[in-house]
Amino acid sequence: DVVHFLHLKPRNTKHLHTVSLGFWIPLNFFKSFEMQLTLEFGGGLELLCDSVKIHNVNVVDPQAGEKLTMKDLLAWVRTNLIKERPEMFMKGDSVRPGVLVLVNDCDWELSGQLDTTLDEKDSVVFISTLHGG
Questions:
Q1: How far from 24 is each of 10, 19, 30, 90, CA to CA, in Å?
Q2: Which pTM value belongs to this model?
Q3: Are 38 and 2 in contact, with CB atoms under 8 Å apart?
Q4: At the topology level of CATH, where does 34-128 sit?
Q5: Domain boundaries defined on the chain
Q6: DSSP per residue over the chain, as a string?
Q7: Each residue of 49-77: pLDDT tens digit?
Q8: pLDDT tens readout for residues 70-127
Q9: Residue 79 and residue 57 in contact, taking contact as beta carbons nearer than 8 Å
Q10: First-to-last CA distance in the chain?
Q11: Taking a C-beta distance cutoff of 8 angstroms, is the pair 75, 114 a contact?
Q12: Cα–Cα dist 85/16, whole Å
């Protein structure tokens, strides 16, 4: 058995040359993937995001080339949008019980929840169904 591996060495500023496979790869091939999404927060969740209900965002997925999942998006939201009290929005890797999630107006429970894959220009809505009184 022979083990093959890809060895990259800089050749010039525009390309990298693969020594073992012998073809050129553009430098932008290694950049992170960016996807434009619309995120909406309601039922009080907008208060966790500086009271902004609708966010048009470009989500950078470090796993370029793979589909962006809701699990990836929630981690991104926790890091980039939630300004205070993230425990009111998330529990572990998912949303807290009582938060309704719609992906393109469809309940995410019908599409795989955390495994739901997202496409460019998708709309994701988070609505808290829990209210004080």
A1: 11, 10, 13, 43
A2: 0.72
A3: no
A4: Ubiquitin-like (UB roll) (3.10.20)
A5: 34-128
A6: -------EEE-SSSEEEETTT--EEEGGGGSPEEEEEEEEEETTGGGGGTT--EEEEEEEESSTTSPEEHHHHHHHHHHHT--S-GGGTEETTEEPTTEEEEETTEEGGGTTGGG-EE-TT-EEEEEE-----
A7: 989 999 999 987 656 567 889 999 999 99
A8: 999 999 999 999 988 888 899 999 999 999 999 999 999 999 999 999 999 999 999 9
A9: no
A10: 69
A11: no
A12: 44
Tokens of 66: 């793979």
Q: 107: which residues sit within 8 A by CB, 6+ positions away? A: 100, 101
Entry field: residues in the chain: 133
Residue carrying the six token digits 């929840």? 113
- The single residue listed with the structure tokens 């220009």 is 121
Tokens found for residue 20: 């073992």
Q: Single out the residue of 38, 32, 115 nearest to residue 70, CA to CA.
A: 115
